[in-house]
Queue: 4 jobs
Job 1
Amino acid sequence: MRFLIAGFGSIGRRHLRNLLALGELDVLLYRTRQSTLPEDEIAGIPVETDLDAALRRHPDAVIVANPTALHLPTALSAARAGCHLLIEKPVSNALEGIDELQASLEKNHVQALAGFQFRFHPGLRQAESWLRDGAIGRPLSARAHWGEYLPNWHPWEDYRRSYSARGDLGGGVVLTLSHPLDYLRWLLGEVDGVMAMTGRLGDLELTVEDTAEIGLHFASGCLGSLHLDYNQQPPTHRLEIIGTQGTLRWDNADGAARLYRASAQVWEICPPPEGFERNTLFLDELRHFREVIRGAAQSVCTLADGERALHLALAIHEAAQSGRTVQL
């Protein structure tokens, strides 16, 4: 298969390295040369600075890894050219154009995978299995927390110029750290109400929000809360779900899922497989994407899933601005 990577920032570079590691050597790049990364490792790889020219090379699949605000125009052009899509999260910073993209996918018989790689985390997959089996009874409440100091993400560049820090490129902590919006609805079902407070509270000199406190009401009746920030040191990313018959916990620090069954009054610990590390998520995501392209698997995170996570993110912004609960 021929893969086109649109964007050569940090995530584009990761996908390039992983494709090569998986033996996918027919790779080309579409880039605008705005990246601050060194170019040594892309020597010998075909590069186009015009998207139409890149698509005329007939890639089978396009990995959309440019800034958030540019995702949809790139994905639409690729879908019209008959390419399968892996669209990095969030799928956009606005809902306009997603219906058109879905129609184009269906018309051209191509598939899409939204790039929420935490769907492939073994700890969260174990949590999903426990919830499906009723291990903690009926979920009553959930708390997710993700704080990570933005300047440490890409130390080779000025973080204030990165897409994560720029509203015009779809930045801000709610959109950029939107993974929990996906995995919470994957684990607990749809959200039908949102409350939120957001602000620029740190010393990062940003024009977008760096902190968010979010309240979620799930259609099942479960209550949820989510904290996101660009300020926390050391980074913290964890989840706790309380049910009628126990408690479930996951911590990204060690990757383990933990289950407390009230009937047994003991914690069960399920660590990730030996050798697991962060990049394993992206490798497993690409392996799955190849299976989707070949028709051997259904996308575990569809464009519709990506749209729902985006809808949640936009509802959070609306709730924070209005001071009211937003019904979905």
Job 2
Amino acid sequence: MDIPYFGEALQTTVLCEACGFRHADVLLAREGPPTRHALRVARPSDLSARVVRSSSGTIRIPEIGGLLEPGPRSEGFISNAEGVLHRFRDILGFLARNADSPAARRRAEASRATLDRMIGGEAPFTIILDDPFGNSAILHDAAEVRPLTNKEVRGLKTGVLTVEIRRGTPRAPASP
């Protein structure tokens, strides 16, 4: 498929009827420079800003301490700023229901109430989208875009599993 602003892409969906496993992703045919997109959502109309997150993108919402990092089963998505807030709200709902203490439940519910005000356009917030492969973006005239520093890139998860092999004497397995 051809995605505006991003070019050629392959959309994949893997489904297992036996166990219910599902994984969907959009794989771009290109890799760009490591990039940060940031948008201050100050007006209700800003909630419609398009957010394109690849499976390697990290989303932060500093006002609630929200962090969505990629993992081995991370999926890319195309949404808007409001949709991103709803994703965080769903996670906080799960955390509130499954909290291991009343204090943790109260913190999750307080953050969820803040998200409700953000979703309603009553509280400004910032979305920061970092992608070490440059395949994510916030498409809005007010979005700030800049390259990530090498230090910032090293601090990001990519969702890609890697194996590091070090030279030296191999260690024997521990005895049972």
Job 3
Amino acid sequence: MTSPRDEIGSWLDADVQPLPPPPGTFERISRRARRRKISRAVLAGAGAAVIVTGLAVSPKIAGALLNRPSGQGQNNVAAGSTMPARTRPAGRHTNGAPLAKSQTPEPGGPAALSATGSGDPVPGNFRPTSVTFVGPAIGAVIGQAGTPGDCAGGPNCTSLAGTADYGKSWFGVSAPATGAPNGSSGVSQVRFLNTNQGFAFGPELWATADGGALWSRTPLPAGVRVTDLETLDGQVFALWARCAGRGPDFASDCTSFSLHTAQVGGAWRRVGGAAGLTAGGTATSASLILVGGAAPVPADATGYVLAPDGRVLSGKLSDSAWTTAGTARCAPGAARPDGQPSGAQLAAGSGKLYLLCAATTSTQAGRSGALYASSDGGKTWQLLPQLPNAGKPASLAAGAGGLVVIATSEGIEVSRDGGASWQVTLPAGQGPPGGFSYVGMTDASHGVAVPADSALHEIWFSTNGGRTWQPSTVAGTG
């Protein structure tokens, strides 16, 4: 009788014919290779990195995302699932194990938005909540799209849309495998450190090392949520907060904040002097900005935290500990849905800090609030002339040449002389209903603003220093 082992041995010794690849495989590989060549060409001419997604508008974030295969922007796993970096194809979201430790990702290969787009449509019903750019033309927005519960067979609809022509057209980009903010889960904001490293947060923390091709979730301690994050000079800083807010108000009921930092490829650590920040145990908020650091003197880069109790903390990005620089003229107050303070906004530009205090007293009723400037890093403050009566302030930005921009519940106000005089460049009735939640300038000419109502599917743009603004609908053919 023939031994079963002999039959198995004969089978193993036989020649094996590999299965042919699915039809069109080689054509798809060729197309992707051509896209990578275009991406490198775009990257070479992208120019200096700038920010559009924080309170300050100093150059500090370079945003770039890789063109994606089809089916991106919508996810098909439950919120809170994890994904190790560089372990799955772009555009597919599957369950996986968390990273071994909280860290920023190692650099990946060259990645940039394609000059002609990825060819994939923006998911339907896109509702943008945050925007980031690299240069005046290339950028992306994050938000929710599709119908919750019907997004590629799952409940998560977090999506990214990219543009290579400053909002004239949009295309789909891969997104983290999570949903909208819901207590301790989901994301609502996006920042990029350079053309490879990027972060999605609020309240979870996700990172990409290859321009958005793959996203991995960074584990956070129990009860901790990321409410603010900024990047500059190869480092990322974030505010980790202990919060109990439910639903979309992920940053509400936060009682303690700590500043954390990491270098690319390194583990997260607390920044000395900026841990356990509170306002006497009451629910409050905090904010973060990073300023300067342009080559060839990156050591001059400075960070500022508006602490819950109104103190202004500062330190060089290379410092192991930050110190109290002064006290703001108003406290942050309760958090808005995007995690930013409702009572005070902090920005930097033209060598100054600017502080916008919301109107809170009966004597300020009907006014936009009060604006202060500091030339000594927050140690002393000067009250600037009264602001225009143009709605409740929501976001503050500042730039070179004395440029200061305020987004309100009604429109946008611009000053070109450091706040001495103002022009309402987008008055009530000419902007989106409900006004804006964010405004920022990519350079002296280009600006972006995010409407407070994400259901409008819009991002507003300016190409003339904030003098006029026009909406762009974030949409594709999907």
Job 4
Amino acid sequence: MLDAHAEIGECPVWDDETATLVWVDQPRGVVHRFDPVTGIDEQLVVGQPVGAVALRKSGGLVLALRDGFGLVDADGGEMRLVCETELERTDTRMNDGKCDSAGRFWAGTMALDYTPGAGTLYRLDPDLTATAIVHDVTCSNGLAWSPDDRTMYFVDSFASGVDAFDFDPADGSVENRRRLVEIDPSEGQPDGMTIDRDGFLWVALWGGSCVRRYAPDDTLDACVRVPVAQVTSCAFGGPGLDDLYITSAGDGLTSDGWSVQPQAGGLFRASPGVGGAATRRFAG
């Protein structure tokens, strides 16, 4: 679809107003906006590593950055840091994130050396205040919410699975954490995630060359294969929200690795036969 050669492509988000896909190359600090019709991929350099992006209701973007949360206005001006989360720490950075139904932006941190339990999942409210919600996270990653908005799903990549929380959409609180999906490390590491209209989870597997579809009862239902190993995230997009866009990474590949998988770091598109829900936007 797009031979981007991203170092670590992440966090695809479909913009239904412009019919484009927004995504990031995390270590390079670049936000991309890809038009699947023209093939044009515009780039915005934000000045520091960016782990996640979401659209704003007022226009522009909200970002999960190395130092905290940032905003880009609709006019496409420079990024401004609006909420510092772990600025005093030089050993962590923010990673994947997503908006809930009330327009709150969730994103978490991880240690640069993957120290166990060094990360935290934060919730950024529309008034631009951040609250630490889940502690002792090793690699904060994919997020999704059930169609009835009563369950939040969360991936801590090094925990080898997907967890579920009871979710209160009124105040954005979570409780009763439990394991939903267990993934054998030999099959890949769970990374980014999305959910379809039927409430099935789509989980990208780093090192697994695929995105898997899991039923709400944890049954493995389907698998979309891609020609690269390091699959990072996925999102539904397109006119009917029935295209599955998949990001990947070329991080750490040797010359031999690139020769085996020359499309590493690319953006892929699949037609899985199901669709997703409309993109949720940040209300701040």
